[in-house]
């Protein structure tokens, strides 16, 4: 067993876990934070996507033992994503919802770094996240629309 210290969604946490466990397993099973999902566990689907020290990472590809005080954000810990969430609803950008938290993490990160992405830039950003339900275009349109809403808000400021 190893003591793993991290800052999860803004709160310092410490947990004892088998050194072979994956970050996604520790987040979900030991820290009871279920927004990031377990899909393939091979780095292919993106359901487990989190922000690790501000960078998009697949938490099934990170050994929990490699974490040492790092900042980890799941969908539960993202700020100001209401416009994105509303855009996903308005554009029917999910059906079963299994991929949605990972998509939202990637989309929020994209809009933070590039507030006015093109559709091609959005497609590139979500290219590591699989959705079995939507054929992707509603997701692309939702993210594009959320970017326009944010643009309009900043124009009014
Ligand atoms: S569960 Fe991590 S990429 Fe699929
Ligand atoms: S909404 Fe079902 S996998 Fe994306």
Automatic annotation (TrEMBL):
Matching SUPFAM superfamilies: 2Fe-2S ferredoxin-like, CO dehydrogenase ISP C-domain like
InterPro entries named among the record's database cross-references: 2Fe-2S-bd, 2Fe-2S-bd_dom_sf, 2Fe-2S_ferredoxin-like_sf, 2Fe-2S_ferredoxin-type, 2Fe2S_fd_BS, Beta-grasp_dom_sf, Diverse_Oxidoreductases
Pfam family, one: Fer2_2
MF GO annotations: 2 iron, 2 sulfur cluster binding; metal ion binding; oxidoreductase activity
Keywords, sorted A to Z: 2Fe-2S, Iron, Iron-sulfur, Metal-binding, Oxidoreductase
PANTHER family named among the record's database cross-references: OXIDOREDUCTASE WITH IRON-SULFUR SUBUNIT, XANTHINE DEHYDROGENASE IRON-SULFUR-BINDING SUBUNIT XDHC-RELATED
Protein name, entry field: Carbon-monoxide dehydrogenase small subunit
Gene source species: Cupriavidus plantarum
């Amino acid at each position: 067993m190893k003591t793993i210290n991290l800052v999860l969604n803004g709160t310092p946490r410490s947990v004892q876990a088998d050194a072979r466990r994956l970050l996604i397993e520790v987040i979900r099973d030991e820290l009871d934070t279920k927004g990031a999902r377990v899909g393939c566990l091979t780095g292919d689907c993106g359901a487990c996507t989190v922000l690790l020290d501000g960078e998009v990472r697949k938490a099934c590809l990170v050994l929990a033992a490699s974490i040492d005080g790092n900042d980890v954000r799941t969908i539960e810990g993202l700020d100001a994503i209401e416009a994105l969430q509303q855009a996903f609803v308005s554009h029917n950008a999910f059906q079963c919802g299994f991929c949605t938290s990972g998509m939202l993490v990637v989309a929020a990160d994209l809009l933070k770094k590039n507030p006015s992405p093109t559709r091609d830039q959005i497609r590139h950003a979500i290219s590591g996240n699989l959705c079995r339900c939507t054929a992707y275009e509603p997701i692309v349109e939702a993210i594009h629309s959320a970017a326009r809403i944010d643009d309009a808000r900043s124009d009014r400021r």
